[in-house]
Amino acid sequence: MFRNGINIGRRPLGKLAHAKHELPFVCNSCQHARAMASWHRQPGTRAKKKDKKPGVSPKRKELSMLEQVKQLEAHVQMMERSYAEKLRKQAAQKTIPKEDVTEEEKDLAYAALMAPPQRDAIFLPKPEPTEVVQSLPPIVQERLGGLELVAVQKPRWDVVLTQLLDNGGLAEMTTPEVNKLITCMDLEHRAHLSSSVLDMMKEGGVKPNTLTYDLFMLAHAEVGNNSQVKTLFGEMTQKGLSPTVYSYGHLLKAYSQEKNLVAASDAFQQMQLAGIEPNLVVYTSLIQTCINCKEFNTAWEVFNLIKFKSTSTAPDLSAYTLMIHACALTDEAERALDLFEDLTVRRGMEPTMEIYNAVIHACAVRKDFFPDAWRLAVKMQQQGLPFDIRLLNVLVQACGRTGHLTRARVMVRHMMDSGKEALQPDLFTYQNLMRAYATYSPPAKKGARQRELLSEEKQVLTQEEASFMPTTTDPQLVRREKNSMLGFNDDKIPFLDKPILLNPREVVDEAALIINWLRETRPEFIDTHMMNSYLDVCIAHDAFEDMKFTYENDMENEVNPFQAEKKAAERAAQREAKGISEEEERLLAAMDLAKFKRNVYTYDIAMSGAIKNRKLKFARQVWQDRLAFTRTPAYWMIPAEERKEMDFLAERDLIDALALGGYLGEAMERIRVLRDEAGVRWTWEDLRTVYVKAVELEDPEVRDYVREVTGRVPKPQLPELHSR
After folding, report:
1. Is 603 helix (H, G, I), strand (E, B) or coil?
2. Whether 498 contacts 506, CB under 8 Å
3. Which one in 269, 448, 484, 646 has a CA-CA gap of 20 to 30 Å to 353?
4. With 70 as the cut, is the pLDDT of residue 445 above it?
């Protein structure tokens, strides 16, 4: 039973801003024409007619500019028609059967090289069983003695190579025939067996060429063997083979995964010195490296370069996805929306699920762009693009940031009712749901105003949220979902039977119900981070006793291995006092729900709750628990700089708690010790609470000391001059 009387579980828990638009592609001749027109036009001629040169007709000038614009538009249309014709010819050329892998096929294969999030990028066509049989050279089929080993969905290529070794290996084969064999392998087997194939080629007298190394580098880059990619690239150059643009593409991808921008830049310069023209894939890989290294300005420079360079390097959907993803990392939702408009309106490209995921994520990280995130999600649904768990979690995360708890509850319910295993809520979903409880503000006004808010919220649920309803033909499920939208009468997740939570007590109660429900039914989703989120909910809604109860009864300190014997002796004494054996204690513990280990953030949250509610005794208890935590291995696993910063913040919180509790002398002593012995340089913001409390309690000693250590000593007053 909860403290508040609720029964569940076995353990209670107590405008779109104006942004700079990206410029469209303009060829060199057009740039020259525009520059000349700009040079002839005097500053201010558009805004100030009186500044125009005498004798020049304004109407004539305007017509001249319109003619130039029309010429530029005609030129751009001509270039687009030329490029479309080129694409048509390339498409027609692909229909001609060829024995070797063409350059065009490689270009298509590289299309998804670095697009976030990482997809199962297949750079060469994934062979079906029949294609594998048809692609295998006749000499390979002959030495296998049949097609049983390869005419399956997932061939065991290690077994295939063993069969080849028993029948002559790769001897008397040509390099193109071996390359065809390598192409038939899936990327995982190809990477795993690359050394074996190269050894077989050496034994059989077959010399690998550049394509051979490219195929192996491709596989290793895809599975993340970055060191092997660099090794193969070095072997290729040592043998005198000239790397291709694809070779450098694989190398750049390896550097991107290692977040090594310096090495990637060096490789890019080497490629240019070798006279190899970078293609879109290489530029995209370089952009990904910049983003991985958080060099966002450099990423934008590369992106703008490929936009203005030529039509062959014009950004594709993968490049746009990368840059929109970068906008999400830098909180530039305006720029993300500009890019989305650029690719959909100006370039007429059809946005993919990855594009929508990226732009919705960019809007979701900003509170002021929450409506845009929801609008784009509705638009995506209307276009028939499927939702995945990642996008749904982004929407729940947006609700958590903005405090839209009602929508978050609806989203979680829809995910559970979808009937699809891939859309079921996961740990990230429930963590963001808890955050929505913490940031939610219940309606403050009652009576008619509260009923009005309820009516408005129900209208939102029945209209805007309806687009997220899971599609089903089961009338009973549809009826249950409709009831869930308006009344939350579902038996899967213990939401309260209310469409909107009206007061803080209801918020805390429902959050507690969900935590206990997860502990009982989905323990894999409950961890220390989730419990910390619940503590935040309690503090945000002034439920100090619930927070304190959870901190003391559902969480415990990490075990100090150096005090294991002492703890064992204490437990033995406790068992003796209770009159139970060690086995009985173990059985009782198994019947109860396990406690969660506190981490450094647990103490920070609990201390903030103690300060907010002026609970000095509890603050001292939390401080002692934190001191014990500093003697455990978990504490020393925190990076040194982060540990130092968190220790200082904890000391500052304790000083605030002491000051608010009226213990100004003890607070001043801690300030002095930290200043004189630890070298802490106090600022006014650090000690503002102490100063305000000293003024309130009329303690001039503490007041003046705070002024002294923070450098806010008042200027000395000049003595008054009295006239005789």
Report:
1. helix
2. yes
3. 484
4. no
Q: What is the pLDDT of residues 103-113, one digit of tens each?
A: 444 444 444 33
Q: Please give the structure tokens belonging to residue 127.
A: 């062979």
The mean pLDDT of 261-277, rounded to a whole number, is 88
Q: Are 662 and 697 in contact (CB under 8 A)?
A: yes
Q: Specify whether the CB–CB gap between 536 and 605 falls below 8 A.
A: yes
Closest CA to 437 of 360, 303, 541, 517: 541
Q: What angle do CA 607, 610, 612 make, to 5 degrees?
A: 110
Q: How far is CA 581 from the centre of its chain?
A: 50
Q: Which candidate, 430, 454, 616, 634, places its Cα nearest to that of 534?
A: 430
Give the SS3 label for residue 312: helix
Tell me which DSSP letter residue 342 carries: I
677: left (phi over 0), alpha (psi -120 to 50) or beta: alpha
267 in Cβ contact with 251 (< 8 Å): yes
User: Angle CA(227)–CA(230)–CA(231) in degrees, nearest 5?
Assistant: 85
Q: Which of 281, 144, 308 is nearest to 221 (CA)?
A: 281
Residues 31-59: b if buried by 16+ CB within 10 A, e if exposed: eebeeeeeeeeeeebeeeeeeeeeeeeee
The mean pLDDT value for 462-479 works out to: 45
Q: Quick one: pLDDT at residue 4? A: 45
**Bond prior to 633 in cis (omega within 30° of 0):** no
Q: How far is CA 585 from CA 25, 579, 590, in A?
A: 74, 10, 9
Segment 27-54, tens digit of pLDDT: 555 555 555 555 445 444 444 444 444 4
| Burial readout 175-210 (b: 16 or more C-beta within 10 A, e: otherwise) | eebbbbbbbbbbbebbbbbbeebbebbeebebebee
Distances (CA, A) of 599 to 13, 434, 518, 593, 717: 18, 18, 20, 19, 51
Q: Which token pair is 92?
A: 């027609």
| Helices then strands, each counted (H, E), the chain | 36, 2
Contact (Cβ atoms closer than 8 angstroms) between residue 72 and residue 34: yes
Residue 653 token pair: 């919180």
* End-to-end Cα, the chain, rounded Å: 83
What pLDDT digit, counting tens, does each position of 301-322 carry?
A: 889 888 887 777 788 898 999 9
